[in-house]
Amino acid sequence: MKNIYLKAIIAAFALFILFQYFNQQINYPKVAFVEDVIDGDTILLSSGKMVRLLGLNTPETKMNINGEWREKESLWGERAYLFSKNNLKNKKIRIEYDREKKDRYGRLLGYVFSEDNFINQALLSEGLAVIDVRFPNFKYLDQLSSSFKDAKERGKGIWSDLKIIGPNDLSEYDGEIVAVEGVVIDVYNSEELLFFLLPSEFKFVIFKKSLPSLKIEEMVVLKDEIIRVSGMVKRYKSSYQMVIHHPYQLEVLR
Question: Which of 38, 40, 50, 153 maximizes the CB count within 10 A of its CB?
Fold first, then answer.
């Protein structure tokens, strides 16, 4: 009788393991087919699942205006889209995951490989994206950081004709990767983040967990300094802001 119970327990455990395995394969596929490319950093799988590429941001080609998605003209957004389309559409891909597997919109968060091409890294290497590595997703931090820094230094892609604007001109560049220059009016240092206030209520923000090597003492003294920050401008409530994910995005001009 004991043997029967033991066999039943083993069988039930084996079924549980199999269920977990197939559930992972369905919900978090490691191999998939790309049905379509939505924009430079978002793809649609044949299963209907959406995948947001981890560790980067490409310029927006669609904007949500009053709850309605509309096409947006963006030179580098279009080039990033075409790069991803040429490398991914109608192709079999491999997906790797990090600590967080989904975002708040229900999209999968992944590192995407097409044959031997690491697409996340390639977009940064070609200067078609800005780095966006966030805690706790640090699996490819070194590779992505190196590619971003190298592309910016060599003036690749976006960095070849980066628009440099003042805080008063931000409304035209929502969803774009630009450089903003201005004087730091104030610095706010909380437990989780640093944010820097510039004219016209423009803010650039640093989440401390996303930049663990950050030297806080060197940042809080930037008040009254003229700085240049490079990244994606986003409207947040009544003003605009930029999130910094790499020290190379910030330059002190004076």
Answer: 40
